[in-house]
Amino acid sequence: MFENLSERFDRAFKVLKGQGQITEINVAETLKEVRRALLDADVNFKTAKEFTTKVKDKAIGRNVLTTVSPSQLLTKICHEELVELMGGEHEDINFKGNPGIILMSGLQGSGKTTFSGKLANWLKNKQRKNPLLVACDVYRPAAIDQLHVLGEQLGVEVFSNREEKDPVKIAQAAITYAKSNGFNVVIVDTAGRLAIDEKMMDEIAAVKQAINPTETLFVVDAMTGQDAVNTAKAFNDKINFDGVILTKLDGDTRGGAALTIKTVVDKPIKFVGTGEKMDALDIFYPSRMADRILG
Ligand code: GDP
């Protein structure tokens, strides 16, 4: 994960090795490398520039007060700023309620259905909840089958209705079913499409309005870089989601999405997907991610 970015940060700090103190010149040279590394990781220009400006100001400001080496100082400041960029503190998802209702949104192929299964598994085994999975993709029978396969594998019940073509009605019926059958969290998996389209957006907005979820999550493939960020913005403008799930972080992802989504939509990343298996999810902690990036 982010190997290339880590290597590039490391290389940038090498400029400072053997230097007695931070100067305008050596810090500028280092931060030029840092900025290039961020841009190559698919971080947008504005964010990369703001990042290096903040680091520079802090470094110059703290220079005289410290006994640590310039490269240690800059590493520390970059760590603080990376954490800030990714949202600071971890934020939990809200699955409390009677039942708690979690609405999943995102494009087709983002990993929505896989993550719905992972979340059900996590709630069942780590939070001692009794989740119900709901298949609301009325266009792709294969998506309903996929959720049933996952449910069976996990021992989690799946609610679906292949005759009903209105996702709002399916979601409402599922909540009624959950209430009378002792399920305390409902996870609603919705239809995604290959690209943003109005109909999909209207549909998910209608589902959200009808069921009033305790948590609306937007799932996005980290490998898609700035596209992921643009998609997040479009979904957030329409449905004002609560948190982001970044999937496929086990792949050869460069890091841009993880580093910029928070800045663009002002919503935290809450979980990351790190594989196809049902236990391949991690709670997202900005400071642990910054540790990884800086090695
Ligand atoms: P959906 O269309 O959004 O419901 O996407 P799916 O859940 O069907 O996932 C699309 C593909 O991505 C499937 O082949 C999944 O196995 C795969 N996938 C989902 N999450 C991850 C992940 O975190 N890591 C990897 N490597 N693959 C994932």
TrEMBL record:
GO terms for cellular component: signal recognition particle. GTP binds at residues 106-113, 189-193, 247-250. Residues 268-281 form the SRP54-type proteins GTP-binding domain. GO terms for molecular function: 7S RNA binding; GTP binding; GTPase activity. It is found in: Cytoplasm. Involved in targeting and insertion of nascent membrane proteins into the cytoplasmic membrane. Binds to the hydrophobic signal sequence of the ribosome-nascent chain (RNC) as it emerges from the ribosomes. The SRP-RNC complex is then targeted to the cytoplasmic membrane where it interacts with the SRP receptor FtsY. Composed of three domains: the N-terminal N domain, which is responsible for interactions with the ribosome, the central G domain, which binds GTP, and the C-terminal M domain, which binds the RNA and the signal sequence of the RNC. Part of the signal recognition particle protein translocation system, which is composed of SRP and FtsY. This is Signal recognition particle protein. It comes from Putridiphycobacter roseus. The chain holds residues 1 to 295 of 451 of the full protein.
